[in-house]
Batch of 4 targets.
Target 1
Amino acid sequence: MTADRNIYLHDIPMDEAWAHFTAALEATGLWRPLPAEEVPLQRALGRVTAGPIWARISAPHYHASAMDGYAVRARDTLGATETAPVILQEGDPASAERPAQPVNTGQPLPDWADAVIMIEHVQPLGGGRLEIRASVAPWAHVRPMGEDMVATELVLPANHVLRPVDLGAIAGCGHTSVRVRRRPLVAILPTGSELVRPGDALKPGSVIEYNSIVLGAQVESWGGRVLRLEPVSDDFARIRTAVADAASNRATLILINAGSSAGSEDHTAAVIRSLGEVLVHGIAVRPGHPVVMGLVHSGDQTVPALGVPGYPVSAALTGEIFVRPLLDRWLGRATEPPLTIQGELTRKVLSPTGDDEYMRVTAGRVGDRVLVTPLGRGAGVISSLVRADGIVRIPRFSEGHDAGDTVTVHLYRSPYEIEHTVLIIGSHDLTLDLLAQFLAERRPEFRLASAHVGSLGGLMALRRGQAHLAGCHLLDVATGEYNVTYVRQYMPGMAVRLITLAGREQGLILPRGNPRRIAGIADLARPDLRYANRQRGAGTRLLFDHLLEQAGLKPEQVNGYENEQITHLAVAAAVKSGQADAGMGVLAAARALELDFIPLGTERYDLALPLQHAAEPGVTAVLDLLHDPEFRAAVAALPGYDVSAMGTVAAEIS
């Protein structure tokens, strides 16, 4: 961008001006998120994650009592009824045949116990003897290891604004600090010989300088840091020195307030040109006409600089229109549009045909109508911004609106994330976390949420219109085909596309060293073994049932068949914690928790997509990732995953 292309007060359309500016930033490497820094959790509220956060430890990291009561062995309570109570004895298995140990909520269970009886369900008889009148199931009133989070699972993606609960989750999974985007440093330089500080004595012609307060508060509310510079009089040399000092002090952005017009004391454009280059001077937007956009050079640093109009409404709107998108870009997050409502204009308004106008309005509901009333349009009337409920944007070449016209109000007070969420319901897979992470990095305006209800549950959710996609790996043992038969059965009449996410290896997850010497499915009939199963409708459970049948076994022969877990990592955690001696899942889940694995076969995991959602931007963004080389490499790096067919259409069903 050279000086001969600069345009001085020539009413450049806003989109064209922004394109000039961002193209220059991209050419100089400034149109990208800022580097990361590590901060303690206590200082991370509101910061933006610079990378994914993975759980270091499981939460809880031990089997914890969920109630005040007595830790027991569930088998010792069998047969207890109102008419035939069972007597327990305080102590451990070494001192009591049916031991019971007092525990409070949150305390670890003794190694020998697998359930808790609530204290109100126990009748003390004296001498440590306890009467119970109902049995308890294994793991009743117990928070098993990993109930909240399992080590290695994704806790938060990159480009996520940290909330108080997020800090608790990060701490709970073993972190004391977090890597976040460095906050942009915005230097604000007020200029004008007429300026006085708030509280100073006033005289005719003096103006209280508060634009820097408004601009600084905007910057801080949008995640930036502020370097407030002392006001400088209308002197070219002094303004130039102050701007040069701000650039040398590593400011990310310089805002020069006032002096951006074409008067004899308006030096902003000349100062920026003397230190670098002016890209745009004058934008067809009202209020905010005389905005200056440029670059300032200081040594090896290039710093963007904006000349912000001096009128307070123009200054504030310049912050909203131009400064916020810059900060959002540097912080790695999308610029959220405001909430909007439709309303009826109460009076006619005329608008200059050559400008994009931002008209401040109030809005209110009267009966069944939302009425929209314009406020004072003067660029110096800051009270109109204070009173405004929102902005009505009147585009260039529109002459305005008539009374009674329906207009869109962009509110100042967004269910944005909800409106931009892509929901995957169905079978759990570790790659869904990676998919969410890559979506957050590549397309931060969208969010991926997944719910693990099993493959069949996912197809049912699609049929009810409750999700965009469903993950499934349902084998038709009669045909050897995956998913097609079940889509036709559970989604009759719907046009569905099956898109392969990955091939993956399934098998038995076992404790390290395989201490029970399990060799395969047939061993699961041993009465001394405990099994961790997946929930009904899960593709892994259906595959396990098929393998049981092949081995000549019935479900009731497997101790723990009804012990249902909703994810592969949960199965691995059950094995890791000793809750189970074996469970079926993917190899990557076993490796994540450093467990042994007996392979039982490979399968195809598909995403079922109703064609009615195929053109939705969020869905397209998710599916585009299946062709992203870095995403494919990340999945291929997971143990037991094959990406050779990733992104291909496995079937079209109608």
Target 2
Amino acid sequence: MSTPARFIHLRVHTEYSLLTGAVRLAALPDLCRKARMPAVAVTDTNNMFAALEFSVTAQGAGLQPIMGCQIDLRYREPEPGEMPAAPAPVVLLAQNEAGYANLMKLNSCLYLRGDGQPAHVTIDELVRHAEGVICLTGGPDGPLGRLLQAGQRAAAEALAAALQHAYGDRLYVELQRHPGESGAAQAERMTERGHVEIAYGMGLPLVATNDVHFPDAGMYEAHDALLCVAEGAYVDQSAPRRRLTAQHYFKTADEMAALFADLPEAVENTVEIARRCAFGARTRDPILPRFAEDEVDELRRQAQAGLEARLAVVPHAAPVGDYAARLDFELGIIERMGFPGYFLIVADFIKWAKEQDIPVGPGRGSGAGSLVAWALTITDLDPLRYKLLFERFLNPDRVSMPDFDIDFCMDRREEVIRYVQGRYGREKVAQIITFGALLSKAAVRDIGRVLQMPYGQVDKLSKLIPVEGVKPVSIERALKEEERLREAARAEEVVDRLLTYGRQVEGLLRNASTHAAGVVIGDRPLDELVPLFQDPRSEMPATQFNMKWVEKAGLVKFDFLGLKTLTVIRNAIQLIHRSGRALHEAADGHTIYEPFEGAEDDIGQIPLDDEKDLCALHLCPHGGGVPGGKLGHDGRAQAHEAHLHRGHRGAGGALPPRPDGKHPEILRGQERAVPARAAASADRPYPRRDPGHHRLSGTGDADRPGDGRLHSRRRRPAAPGNGQEDQGGDGRRAAQVHRRRAQERRR
């Protein structure tokens, strides 16, 4: 029979407390298992980034999740002309589903204030969203603790009364003890007596917490360096900075019981709170706004009409019956999987963009294999012509959300997003958050900076870490593979310290930003489904859950990608219209101007099987038996010809001037093909290049007068070839040097 729990951690900061918490979410179930704790609360600072991920992961590991957050409260409004007091933290825990919904609302309030102030909530907002929430007063650094430290006992009691009125028996007075080398911390020593007296005087229960920031005491120094990275401070600086103690680790129940032996009820109340918070967040099926009363019928109607319109102008790649059968097959799959609304929403904003003359990409990825998408003008590629498979996009045997990668003109992408916000409601549209991790190279650089090591030394150490693919390997692996890194650690204690700290903090999250293209659209205000976050660099809010977990929360991602190529093509077409003249290639190969009589505004009308285009891309079936069409002296298509062909034809026949003012017809004169060289003779396998390299006299020729004339470059005699006699002695080394130089010139 298992031993009853004696203590539950109710204040844990994971890696999602960016550059503050160092408890890895994936390792939390093991920490609880070793400490024999059946439940644990995650209370990251001013966010719920990990709420759903923690709930699902913990339940999968047989652990009871307690979802919460540490949230900054503006507990006192400033007097006129007075600077507002810094917000103080309180801890809020979700008791039930209503409490979880209120926590999401409060976390959205933190960032969607619109007043430019640091993230915080007010007393009114706290009271408004108090249902189903358990409140801990925040310990010595909470609002009660701040008032007690300032000697304002009456104000502390008044605030406790206001919180008690809002939360009733769900308010707990929080106590903390983090003894350091010199005893209890000053704030704890100054406030504990006042906290206990207020609790006993008002009949409020006490609760003991440990403010957990790292998994074990051995990580204290590395975590201290992490705090310096967050604040731009130095580890050994004498100026005041934020510091924790070595006691802010994940303590066992026995350690906490011994620490609060004089107040056993404060430890026991942690278990009581865990029993009251028997709620876990769940994943949801996809939620989309309703596009029409009968989405199935609407999708069929639009798809049939769209296919007829396409086939009326596009050459058929198969009999019309094949198109109809393929369309009916795809519609059946889409209806069976429940995604008609998704196709209608995507088609709606793409049609709007095209009506506003906003360039839209022709489609890419697996979505190009859908005939329904082609009929709805989501894509511009006929899947039957190119034999593309619909099953790569949607497959009943592999249930997943459809995902169109949609390219818009980079300059006008925001217009499409604003249309979507107006169509479905600003409160129902948001971007998706993404997190940056402290990878090994960045960890070495950041930790080296806070240890005040020389930049050159830190830079050298960072460059010794190998890169695999696009990411650097871990510091642990780098130490195994790179002898110079191990030698540096043995030679200097500070380097060993740097790498030790780096190993402990690498992989932790360091910052939050928004996804480059992902946008979610809901059928209700999004803060009812996920907490929201505001990136200062963006006008639109973002979800606090990342791309993986926002979909599990029921929201569907739409990709609005900004593609610069579409912007360049649009600008080229506008240049044609403004100039009224277009560039064309004459029969003799020269580029000339001709009067403009109209250009193709729709890049989709540019043929994909044009022979000149294919030759420029080395795909032409003609050209003397060598792929590439027009050949140069080395048997390859000329790179500058490919540039000119592709540029002129792809941009409707015109290219804008280069930054240096030169036009393409000038470039053509400068980049004419070089005549082919004669074949190398058998006795001279490494011929020199044509002696057409010249230089002005006086540039390195001390024995020549600087008369301004062009002279041939002076050359050393060629090294003897294989099997030839070396007149100057053993010329093997000279021959190797000459060969290498010749190879470099040919490249």
Target 3
Amino acid sequence: MNMQPNDETRELEQMYAETLQRVQRGSIAKGRVIAVKQDGIVVDIGYKSEGLISIDEFTKEELASIAEGSQIEVFVERINDQEGIITLSKDRASRIRAWDVIAELHEQNARIEGKVVDKTKGGLLVSIRGLKAFLPASQVDIKATKNLDALIGETIAVKILKFSPPRHPNGSTSGSNPGATLIVSRRAILEEDRCKARDETLKVLHEGVLMNGVVKNITDYGVFVDLGGIDGLLHISDISWGRVNHPSEFFKVGDEKEFLVLRHDETSHKVTLGYKQKKTDPWQTVDQKYAAGMQVKGKVVNITDYGVFVEVEDGLEGLVHISELDWAPRPKHPSKYVAPGEEVEARVISVNKDERRLSLSTRQMKSKPWDLVGSTYQVGQQIQGKVKTITDFGAFVRLAEGVDGLIHISDLSWTRHIKHPSEVLKKGQKVDAVVLSLEPDKERMALGIKQLTSDPWETEIPARFRLGDECTGTVLRVTDFGVFVELAGGVEGLVFSSEVDSAYALQEGAEIRVRIIKVNVDERKIGLSMRNVKSHEA
């Protein structure tokens, strides 16, 4: 059938009219990219004019993926038929579609993923399909979260708590989404997952079973472990058979370990866990593995005033008492011998399984000093040592082997009358001495200083000091029974009280003239007199 020109015009007008009905301001349309320009993307949406999307609505990645012929969904913002311009928006189309998807997910009570983009008053902002949702701080986690900033940038799963789409005339939406409400919860997801995990855990949870768990928290008294929806407590006493100063020595938050269920209260669901119980108590077989005299190696785990604790195997400690640290008569503080963590060798002294005691000795790993002394020294040998202690009856001298020899006060001088050893010796002073006697089995050694020289009373003193001789001396001390006087060569004599000349006021350090009236070699005494002396010198 042939159409007349006016019929063709009417048909074209009808076609355009139908097109205009399909493409309206405020609607969403599908289009095809015609061109990519500097100021925007030209899109054909099936209208008599092409539309333009601002270049600002595209990221660099999106621009890189767009080419002529690409399909795109857009929102019709404005139509200007007179100028032949259609303004389109990709972002608004995406937001409208996002609200539709969110509405559907809300109805289904489904999970949805979003990215935490910022922190705001009272919580966080989460981007979901380009829309900003509010995540209240109380809905971030099951427990209160102190550091919300740590979640910024993270992608999380949430559920929609409250949903109200924006009020937009003709389908338009503004950047602030007037009237829109979108509140989400991460806590709801965590609680739901925890509930499911708890149900699964309860199916296998019973006393005596081994279960994997994740360390959640560490306190001074123990460790809290997530067994999968149910928390268990591992008390500090159940961590190790050995010494535990703090649970953090064995665990850190996030550790995944295997634990033994010791107790489970099915009413309160309180779970008590054990860790050391996975291994046999080493004290049960201690008497089978260790015996007196055995040599062992171990690590120093604790130092006290009374000794050192050494771990010889996992969970088994022995004590080296301070008296077993060193052969010295008075051992120093244990910290002077070893340090925490140091490996030491020791000898087993005794094993007591019932009392859980293992006594060790480190000094028995060394040669006994008195045994060394017995093979090193002999009577008459000259030695050198340092004065360690001074007493009323003598001085103890420390030798190189760590043992002490005694210099009795009577062995300090041949000639002087010494009232106290401190008159001639000082603590820490180095001295030479002669070994007078040696009894290693009794741990005794006698030393003498005066024996370094020959006894002057044998020939020298009798030859130098004769009866009737007069000489000059120095007053050493004045006593009730007489005056002690030092003569030449350090020899002492005594002026008996009956022989003192009262005409002179005597004091220590004064020089006087005396006459020898007695020389007793056997008793090693010289008697003096101030009477009938030809001349006195004050």
Target 4
Amino acid sequence: MSQSERFSISFLKAKRRNMFLSVTPGFEHGPGIKRDGITPPRMNDPHSIPFVCSPRSLMHDINLPATTDAYIQRAGTWTLYQHLKEFNNYLGKKWQIIGVQSCGDLTMNPWHLAYVRNSYIRNQQINLCCLLSEDESREPFSSRIYRCIVKWDSKVLKYSKRRFEALDLTFHSVPGPGGVSIVIEDTHRRQDYSSWLNKLQGYDSITHDIAPFIDFALAGKPLVINSEELSLSNAIDRFQDVRHIFNLPTVRASGAYKGQPVHEVNFGEYQLFRNLNERRAALSSAVIVDLSIGDHIRVSWKDLESKLRERHFKPVVDSPTRRGQFRKYSDDTRQDKAEIFFPHNVYPFGVLGLHEDELVCLASGGLSGRVGNTLEGISRIMFDFFGCDDAMVLDEGYDTFQIINPLAAGLYKYTNDELIARILSFTKEISDDEQKKSLDTTVNYKYQGGLKLWPLNKSLFEEIEQDFNKSGQCDYSDVLSVRPHRSQMRSVLIFAVPQDKNISNSEFKQENPTDNDVSQK
């Protein structure tokens, strides 16, 4: 008996094109994913967050517990259709959409940040987008330096030859505008920037604030900086979810963590999540992992060994020297431990890069933990194949997707309305499926009736039903380069060209998805 699955890889290269950032209103500051390395990732229910509910004239419920359900975590988040419809309503007469890329970690995970000077989204008055919730997950933005892809304002172009540029930035104030500074260690390069920045009307040479002169700045997890590929040991400190780096077996466990029963764990996650030095060491050598996790959780060696063999790990007598090897380890403490050389894991990744003034967008799909690309593989593609001067990961897992407007005879195949109608059909189809699944996963949830009826979602899906009834079904098969696995996405990047400009193949390149059939016995 065989099983077949399909995954896609797609890239989009756009020179002298424009990029826009769309963030769901009300979610500019979180809530974000919380991890402890033991229990499943959780998030405060959006229905319990004042800054999410208030703009929608809804009362927040502080008694709702944090949730691990992916559907509840996305309550109130725009669908792909709403992101594109909003863009078309306000900018569609001037700009033709040529592609859409996921930006799923923004305001969901640490180190992801965006500064937006002027949002085109109606009633959205924000500047800094990042985790600003009042708890331990709050982003310490004022003490960090962020590697950002900056989109300069058009008035800067006569001084700076690049519309897009990668820079180290610091951010100083929130809420309100201002407080964005360039960090440049090289004296001569700093003088070069000062020479033309001082020519800009309104530039303050004392504060060095560049906020008035950028459209937006976007930070993710860097892979390439200043034409130098980062070693994995210097890149993984920003990956909170260590499963995206290492192949960690899920194994039965017994016990409780903070009063919550624990029945299984991703073995090794707790240690690698909590200890950056061990995470770095695991990239190139075996690490010793306790079978006792925390104070009250236990994994049996029998269960672990069985799961490791099932996952094709190989037992050895001496210390493991190759990825995928393991052995039982004992020391003077007489506590059972395992010594494992964890293989690198495969995951979907969404990446944004910059080669001179050319944007490079890569979406690598897959089956999380089974088929896809490794972090090292993604770095190889962006650095070796595309020659990116800078590259950063924007999301991983099921958030990853890419939409393209296909080229036909050197012109884009679909108008904005035609492309959006296809995204509407896809959104309707996938959200109908999510509605059915949510009825099963949220049986004990306060709000019944499935995700389409939840207070934060109701108006979003009513809009989809109404618009779909007017437009009808469209074939969307040729626009989904890497198929989205979810209808709702907190943030996306939209790529566009001027409506009155014909684009030839020599100026724009897109690669149709490569579909790979993966068969398993």
